[in-house]
UniProtKB/TrEMBL annotation:
Annotated GO MF terms: kynureninase activity; pyridoxal phosphate binding
Name of the protein this chain belongs to: Kynureninase
Recorded family membership: Belongs to the kynureninase family.
Location (main, coarse): cytoplasm
Superkingdom, natural source: Eukaryota
Subcellular location per the Swiss-Prot or TrEMBL entry: Cytoplasm
Involved pathway(s): Amino-acid degradation; L-kynurenine degradation; L-alanine and anthranilate from L-kynurenine: step 1/1; Cofactor biosynthesis; NAD(+) biosynthesis; quinolinate from L-kynurenine: step 2/3
Summary of subunit composition and partner proteins: Homodimer.
Claim: Phosphoprotein is one of the keywords in the record: no
Length: 497
């Protein structure tokens, strides 16, 4: 049993585990209707070997597996990996294609009735909505490049090693791309690999990193550390870090701190500006539902992105033929980060746009931006606080159902913190050794999509925008069946299912 308050009150186990309970929760929840904004693949869609949706006739012609539940919605609990497609995305992308087809380069410049903003200004058009998701000023965010590329660009600006302060602190199980990025930043500055400090969990039986532990490792290396780079939510364990407190601690020790928010954006409310975060980057393809590998986003705190010249604004400077010196945080630059009004003069005078936009390099893919726009328009119909309230209930329900295993001791344990304030939507389930492949095969055959991390972890994430209590009920029914079948098979023949 969890020692945290159960949001469902003192409800009997039988009732909690009933179909009616899940149905009732969905009916009560005022955000349930957002599910209809998304295309939920059917089980037939997933089984179909051809790309695109499943068509009954083809299945009947023997091209595919025939199951009687092909028309049923699948149980998609994998928004922590790839979010589902908003229904409006196709419409927006068609509009983009029509604009390109009918206007060519004019699509960059012309305001078109019923169309999207001119591509030239599409980066500005996404700021306001993005800023609401991360708790920032619109000027502090920009949608650009991809996550790892953005981490590099931000480290190029914020990791300025000196003889005394040169270490980078990350966590020991950082997403490999972050690990490689930090490692290669050290190499880029000719700093030995030993300057990469990793925060390891104190116990080998749990990935949990308490805030005290994190702060103590940072303190231990403070005098020689230039940068701390941490995830808002840890991808493997699902642990949500105390971004505000860790940021404050780093600042009190003179250390810059950046956050990888891949698993946090669109999942939990963030207040990057108020928390004084120096910089952050994220992708838009997980809880953000922008599509596979779509353009990412970044945040740079207002205090770091000013562009100043004694008595002269950036725009004056641009029109002054660059005779005055501008003062701004060093960065790797490209033309899209330069002042819009002078960008097309082609004069080789870099005049950074104040704010996060000044960190852009290239003109962004309008196709990607259009897809992100579709997703942001769904988020804009609600807000992160309301989504979080729903998410806490969904994940608590998933947890309660996981803890209630009918056949004695479950062959798994939850490794995500049980404290709701230390996690987002995702629960990570550590299966007993040897069960993962067979359990996964069993549930996938029955239309359940979750994410596996070898050797023994399943990550299950009810996305607050489109997953339902009913999804969780169906998941648990199939998952428990799978555990029982695989365990009994393993016990009876000592081998695979
Ligand atoms: C936590 C985290 N960081 C970094 C990445 C890498 O992202 P990208 O391939 O968009 O650079 C991912 C991808 O899933 C991730 O989950």
């Amino acid at each position: 049993m969890s020692r945290y308050p159960n949001p469902f009150g003192s409800i009997a186990d039988d009732e909690l585990c009933s179909e009616q309970f899940a149905r009732g929760e969905d009916e009560k929840d005022t955000l349930s209707h957002f599910r209809h904004e998304f295309i939920i693949p059917t089980k037939g869609d997933l089984r179909n070997k051809r790309y695109g949706p499943y068509r009954k006739q083809e299945v009947e012609l023997g091209h595919d597996v025939i199951e009687d539940d092909n028309d049923e919605e699948s149980i998609y609990l994998c928004g922590n990996s790839l979010g589902l497609q908003p229904r409006r995305t196709r419409e927006y992308i068609n509009r983009y294609l029509d604009t390109w087809a009918s206007k060519g380069v004019f699509g960059h410049f012309k305001n078109l009735e019923g169309g999207h903003p001119p591509w030239l200004h599409i980066d500005d058009a996404l700021k306001e909505q993005t800023s609401k998701l991360v708790g920032s000023l619109p000027s502090e965010v920009v949608v650009m490049e991809t996550l790892t590329a953005n981490l590099h660009l931000l480290m190029a600006s914020f990791y300025r090693p000196t003889a005394d302060r040169y270490k980078i602190i990350i966590e020991g199980k950082a997403f490999p791309s972050d690990h490689y990025a930090a490692q290669s930043q050290l190499a880029h500055h000719n700093i030995p690999p030993s300057a990469l400090i990793t925060i390891e969990p104190p116990s080998s039986s749990s990935p949990y990193l308490s805030t005290e532990h994190i702060l103590s490792i940072i303190s231990q290396h403070a005098a020689s550390t230039a940068l701390v780079l941490l995830p808002g939510i840890q991808y493997y364990s699902g642990q949500l870090f105390d971004i505000e407190l860790i940021t404050r601690h780093c600042h009190s020790l003179g250390i810059m701190v950046g956050w990888d928010l891949a698993h946090a954006v669109g999942n939990v409310p963030l207040k990057l500006h108020d928390w004084n975060v120096d910089f952050a980057a994220w992708c838009n393809y997980k809880y953000m539902n922008g599509g596979p590998g779509v353009i990412g986003g970044l945040f740079v705190h207002d205090s770091h992105s000013k562009v100043e010249a004694a008595g002269v604004s950036a725009v004056d400077y641009a029109t002054n033929n660059g005779t005055r010196q501008l003062v701004y945080r060093p960065r790797l630059s490209g033309w899209w980060g330069s002042d819009k009004s002078s960008r097309f003069y082609m004069e080789n005078q870099f005049v950074p746009i104040p704010g996060a936009s000044g960190f852009q390099l290239s003109n962004p893919s309008a196709l990607d931006m259009t897809s992100v726009q579709a997703s942001l328009d769904v988020f804009s119909m609600t807000n992160m606080d309301a989504l979080r309230r729903r998410s806490i209930r969904l994940t608590a329900y998933l947890e309660a159902r996981l803890l209630h295993y009918r056949k004695g001791t479950p062959p798994y344990k939850i490794i995500t913190p049980l404290n709701p304030t230390e996690r987002g939507a995702q629960l990570s389930i550590l299966l007993n050794p040897g069960l993962l492949d067979d359990v996964l095969a069993y549930i996938e055959e029955r239309g359940v999509i979750v994410d596996e991390r070898k050797p023994n972890v399943l990550r299950v994430a009810p996305a607050p925008l489109y997953n339902s209590f009913w999804d969780i009920h169906r998941f648990i029914t199939i998952f428990h069946e799978a555990c029982e079948a695989v365990v009994s098979q393993t016990q009876s023949n000592g081998g695979h299912f």
